[in-house]
Amino acid sequence: MPDSLPSDSVGLVSPQTIPFDEPIELACGQSLERYDLVVETYGTLNADASNAVLICHALSGHHHAAGYHSMDERKPGWWDSCIGPGKPVDTHRFFVVSLNNLGGCHGSTGPSSINPSTGKPYGPDFPVITVADWVKSQARLADRLGIQQWAAVIGGSLGGMQALQWSLDYPERLRHALVIASTPRLSAQNIAFNEVARQAITSDREFHDGRYQDFGALPRRGLMLARMVGHITYLSDASMGEKFGRELREEAYKFGFDAEFQVESYLRYQGERFSEIFDANTYLLMTRALDYFDPAYAAGGDLAKALAPAQCEFLVLSFSTDWRFTPARSEEMVNAMIQARKKVSYAEIDAPWGHDAFLIPTPRYTDIFTAYLDRVAREVGA
Amino acid sequence: MRPDLEIIQQWVQPGNHVLDLGCGNGTLLDFLQRERGATGFGLEINPDHITTCMGRGVSVIEQNLDTQGLDNFDDGMFDVVLMTQALQAVRRPDKVIEEMLRVGREGIVTFPNFAHWRLRWGLALKGRMPESDALPYKWYNTPNIRLCTFKDFEALCRQKGIRIKSRRVVDGQHQNSWLARLWPNLLGEIAIYRITRENAS
């Protein structure tokens, strides 16, 4: 909890719920008759609506990207390190839009929302959402906010996939796509980790085939395990080693199977906390959206060909110790962009924190992010 | 404008797709984009230079020529491939030149002449490794690990069947001098070569 708000914070913010009553057709063939999106905005939209930036969140993210909801809030929004006055995404210059994606569990319509046709929570009946579906719903949000073209669409990890998808589906509606710590498709290993997480959830006895809300139950254990597995893939061996090493919670081995190593209790704590705030069906849905993402698929596996419609400029960033989406995956994307004659810049940033590095403001990352967006701001007269 | 840039820009046609190997802070590409409507990329490994490029709207890829080569670029995808003052800093200049002319129709290369009289003088009289405006480093910390003379470079081109379309010789400040034109391998400090694999011009 901050005693006073830092000067480079966007300050106190409050989310708004925006209803959409026009049905949205989804990639799976189903459609949603109506839906809500929960949105936060920071900064001011300029007169010609040219300074808008869209922030796309990753697997467990949401609309609360910067600032504080109240003076009692323990931590600011999830990307507060990069969004605010004088920060890389400078709210003095940009109008920043951040939303909770469709299928999420932070207020936007998702599996835990009430299904109007049954009067009960959707649960497992909520359609599987794809990255392209998200982008479609975000385009409608842009319409609603009076934004014809984003100065930039920015995202890390799964958020980066949305930025990439934007460039293909609405080429004329964004000037820049910032694709950070991302990949053009999941590898077999990535999908395998997701499958372990899903199995952990669906095999929890409290899961009730996804209808746990109807039973007043919660698959806490499964969700906790899923998060523990996921969390390991977000960190690097080195950063875990640095943080915990082989440190024990007490002085000697107890010759049992309780959490004796610090790393065990850390993972349990992270998992437990997550299981209290996140919805299991949303977790299943988000991991599936990751698995399915593969824009090259429709172009016979040729990513350069798939990129043909893109008109924006790209900034692709990777992190040296990210083993979830390695620098090689980013380079694959960059090479396809080069082949497709798109404007692209690329840097691999040296950082010890694995995949999580995209949330941590290391000097080089901040410098690049700031320099690039400063130029975007100048370009749109912000 | 720096005279070498003035010369180089005359050799880049409007709208050309350009690759700049070791593009530094992007001065040349920025200039070519604005003045010649060129498109393209720079490759660079210096983090500060990369940031500067990104801040000025020059597309830059972090890529090390020594370890990564140019494998990620297709044959003939560029009109011109530039390499200013970087040839002497790569591990295998011969391979880089071949790669330049694989991915590009034409190459423009500039490098310092190790046969310039001041360098010859320094080595002959003082018996020390030469230093100059164009080569301001000590032998132990120089990034310039593959120094050559104009004659060496031209011999390499002949050996590889590469045609030299033009050559301009300037001094250390990139100024044109009639003396350097008269006796380039002795009096020229920096040469700007325009090379190609194409036969007829």
TrEMBL record, chain A:
Q: Name one GO molecular function term.
A: homoserine O-succinyltransferase activity
Keywords recorded for this protein, A-Z: Acyltransferase, Amino-acid biosynthesis, Cytoplasm, Methionine biosynthesis, Transferase
User: Where would you say this protein principally sits, based on its record?
Assistant: cytoplasm
State the active site.
S157, D322, H355
Pathway named in the protein's UniProt entry: Amino-acid biosynthesis; L-methionine biosynthesis via de novo pathway; O-succinyl-L-homoserine from L-homoserine: step 1/1
Concerning Pfam families, the annotation shows:
Abhydrolase_1 (PF00561)
Q: Where's the AB hydrolase-1 domain?
A: 51-359
Q: Kindly list the places in or outside the cell where this protein is found, as annotated in its UniProt entry.
A: Cytoplasm
Q: What domain of life?
A: Bacteria
InterPro entries this protein is in? AB_hydrolase_1, AB_hydrolase_fold, HAT_MetX-like
Listed EC numbers:
2.3.1.46
Catalytic function, reaction form = L-homoserine + succinyl-CoA = O-succinyl-L-homoserine + CoA
Give the binding site residues for substrate.
Answer: R227, D356
Q: Which GO terms describe its cellular component?
A: cytoplasm
The top EC class is transferase
Per the UniProt record, the site (Important for acyl-CoA specificity) maps to R324
GO terms of biological process kind: homoserine metabolic process; methionine biosynthetic process
Family listed: Belongs to the AB hydrolase superfamily. MetX family.
What function is annotated for this protein? Transfers a succinyl group from succinyl-CoA to L-homoserine, forming succinyl-L-homoserine.
Protein name stated in the entry: Homoserine O-succinyltransferase
UniProtKB/TrEMBL annotation, chain B:
**Pfam families recorded:** MetW (PF07021)
Give the matching InterPro entries. Answer: Methionine_synth_MetW, SAM-dependent_MTases_sf
Stored SUPFAM superfamilies: S-adenosyl-L-methionine-dependent methyltransferases (SSF53335)
Q: What are the coiled-coil residue ranges? A: none
**What domain of life is recorded for the organism?**
Bacteria
Matching entries from Gene3D superfamilies are given as: Vaccinia Virus protein VP39
Question: NCBIfam families recorded for this chain?
Answer: metW
**UniProt protein name:** Methionine biosynthesis protein MetW
Protein's organism:
Marinobacter excellens HL-55
The gene for this chain is metW
